[in-house]
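Agenda item 2: 6-O-phosphono-beta-D-glucopyranose complex prediction
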Amino acid sequence: MDELGQLDELMVCRLSNDHRKPAPCTIVIFGASGDLTARKLVPALYHLYGDRLLPEPCRIIGFARREKTDESWREELGTVLPQFSRTKPVDPARWQAFAQNLFYCQGDLNDPAAYRRLAERLTGFGDEQLARNLLCYLAVSPSQFGQVAEQLHATGLLRRDETPPFWQRVVVEKPFGHDVASAKALNAELTRFAHEGQIFRIDHYLGKETVQNILMFRFSNAIFEQLWSRQSVDHVQITVSEKLGVGTRGGYYEEAGALRDMVQNHLQQVLSLVAMEPPVSLAAESIRDEKVKLLKSIRPLLPQQVAQQVVRGQYFAGQVDGQACPGYRQETKVRPDSNVETYVALKLFIDNWRWSGVPFYLRTGKMLPLSASEVRVQFRPTPNVLFAAQCGPRLEANALTLRLQPNEGIALRFNGKVPGASTAVRPVRMQFSYDAEFGAYTPEAYERLLLEAMAGDATLFIRRDEVETAWSLVDTIRATWADTPLTNREFYAAGTWGPVAADDLLAAIGHAWRHPQSVTERS
Ligand code: BG6
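Presented output:
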């Protein structure tokens, strides 16, 4: 580390002991043959192991229906790891050492005998902590959450009344239901066998460094928070754009659409962090209380407002990066007359003192020109005197952009004098880049989330009331769309920034989308 690096290190204020390790435990992955295990969970655990962050000892058991042995499962995962690992090349010695902790338990999710075999494997480790500290990761369909919890409970592997220091927790993946009613039903089912404190609902966006940084940025700096309200903010744009289409996930997507797939969870999570009030403490419940409060302050949409405030879209064949791409209706497992939305843009208002009257525009879509997630806080323009009087709308208003991914960082745009004899002004940028400041180390969201779940810290997970509140907005919109077919104005060519109706949504009050820029455009 150079001198400057050492100085930076001295300035770090650590809020938690980074070297705190969770107690020894076993992670049981249900549905271990699925994509998530090979793509995300095992690579994340491999990296945690490499960074010496996994508990010692720690065991991982894959539970699934297919016939496999410990050895064949290890081999299978080892073969695909190079493809999914964030560090390359994979270190074979490290993998070999890590893989000794992987075990496989074959069984059907509703077969009590399979859970008894699981229990035997756990006791077979010969360590009470490994047998009683359990992180049960349900990488299965939500319709199976209840039965897995019930079987675990019946086998004594999931106890509501477990006494510390032992613990059992259940981690569930989205989609958490498909509307308010089904989310409530799922919650009711799970809480029959585990209390709320044992249930960890994942939204992987909360595991992203840049998303966590939203709270740090807002509440560890004095200057921005002063500006963070309707006094200074004109409007806010939250964009999560993706270059890819639905690929092989057509079947799932036909049921979900962009609204359920992205808006119900990731976009509302980012919105709540951007707009919430300061929590009373950094405790998980204080933070989650504020997030729920914010979600509850979103002005409910009346059915007749949906058409004015929500735009949906679906891509047709086009080109992304010069490559021909099929239309959504031509994708595998998609109905040829599907009306499912692959794009959504919404205008929301938050009815509280801080944000009254400030539009929040949220948009997400597949097959857009760029994959990028960012929050743009657009400040009010200057009064129409001096430079503004001369330049008119060409004088840019200030903007602060939080680039969540890629090219993670923050940019502040303000105006400056163009050097030279003439009087000319143009926007310039002040940039913070994660890469330049901290180096290229960006852990995968799942690394952080798994670690927090093992440590029992629920801050980065979604609480019961949070998930239910987040569904209500989505439900109203879906009910309004019902089976109405898409109109021509709602289609967009793959490789463009969505349907024209989305531009009109902003233009109606003199706003315009500011598209994320690619790294090359920016430099
Ligand atoms: C998932 C959605 O939750 O998030 C996907 O199901 C989407 O459709 C993905 O592609 C986006 O996540 P990220 O981390 O790539 O922005």
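Discussion summary: Residues 242, 261, 373 surround 6-O-phosphono-beta-D-glucopyranose (CB under 6 Å).
Owner for follow-up: CH.
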